[in-house]
Amino acid sequence: MNQQNIIVEKNEYDWLLGMLENRRYTDPLNQSCLEALHKELKSAVVKEEFDMPRYVVRINSMVDVLTPYGIKKNIQIVVPAERNMEQDKISILSPMGSALFGYKKGDEVRWLFPKGKGKIKILEVKNAPKRVFK
Q: Tell me, what's a Pfam family for it (predicted)?
């Protein structure tokens, strides 16, 4: 749905491809998000950890976004088992999580909101200096 190629760290790329191959998630919403993400992964720029740009949305990133409704939100993109809406932790498999993944600070990302299509702007991305991903 978006114009540019996403940037993905190699371990996260491999993990997501494994999820697609194993089809571990059977929920229709998760499957829909995985299929959309799979399309973007086909043309993704895959980088090693040390080559990853600082402000790219990754798993465990803290992200400040601006919705088309003018609402600023701070969310964290997490693996499905760690999602917690009360703590603003959203799954990589959710519509917003999969839409933001791989984009960077300043990007405007098209997203399907409950009221229709819109753009969500990435205002800030915070990543831990050293990451461990399994």
A: GreA_GreB
3-class state of residue 52 by DSSP: coil
Task: Scan for tokens 């114009």, then name that residue.
Answer: 3
Q: Quote the CA–CA distance of 127 and 122 in Å, as a whole number.
A: 14
C-alpha to C-alpha distance for 100 and 111, rounded to whole angstroms: 9
Question: Can you give the residue ranges of every domain in the chain?
Answer: 7-126
Q: What tokens appear for 73 in the block?
A: 């939100």
Please report, in angstroms and rounded to a whole number, the separation of the first and last CA atoms in the chain.
Answer: 28
**Topology, domain 7-126:** Chitinase A; domain 3 (3.10.50)
The count of other CB atoms within 10 Å of the CB of residue 98 is 24
pTM assigned to the model: 0.86
